[in-house]
Each structure stands twice: as C-alpha cells, then as structure tokens.
Specification:
Length: 145
Amino acid sequence: MPDLRLLALDTEDLEVISAFTQDAVMRVSDIGLSKSDSRFALLMNRFVWEASDIRGRGERRRTALHFDYVRDVTSKAINLQAKEGVLELLAIRFVSNDNPSGTIVLDFAGGGTIELKVDCLEARLQDLGAAWAAKGKPAHALEQD
C-alpha cells in the first residue's frame, strides 16, 4: 500500500485527516510546538483503517502530522511534562471563531484535549514509510443511554 499524503485547508479536508488518524497512538515526547515556525507537530503510529480486514488484522504506520500558523497551544487533562506518557487520538476538529482563524481541537481517549489557536486552518499528514502488523483492531465501547 502506498504512503498516505494529505493536505487540509478547510473543515471537510480536516474530517478526512481525522478519519485516517482515528486510534493513532503517540508518546507525549513526540508532540510539540515550534514557536519560531508557528508549527505544531505530532509523530504517531496510526492504525491503517483502509488496510484492515474483517478478522481484525491490520497494520500500523509511522505518520507525521503538523499544523501551521499556530499561535498558542493549551491542553486539558493531559500532562505534557510526562514525556513517556502515551496518548490515543480519537478525533480532530476545527472550531471557527473569526474566519479564517479558530481553534483546532485534538480529542484523546480518556477525555483529554489539546487545543491549537490558529490564524487559519492548514494541516499536512504524511506516512513515513515504516509499517508493521498491528496486534489487533482498535474497538470502542458504545455508551449506553
């Protein structure tokens, strides 16, 4: 399977990136802001949903994702000082407050979030080539009303 390369310039594009990165795992030490470049970057091991089969077999790939034009980063319920901590990404969304600026919200398992204040939405995702067999297919318990 060829490496995935995606660009997001609007909310529809970002929804595609969010779908491809659902259940990606990363170490806290693999995320951060470069203030001089106004760029927030993540290195992750994404589950390759497009390559999984009905028996739950699949693969993970090393993937880079970055957001440009980032002015500020805040987190809730995530200890960014715990460098060996592991995060599981559930979704990425954009909340516009004064188009084109807004907030990119990264939602993680356990209720934690990272919020990026941006001048405009621009994100790039790229697989880095390394791939390996996944131990299992991620699953989520559905909440009962």
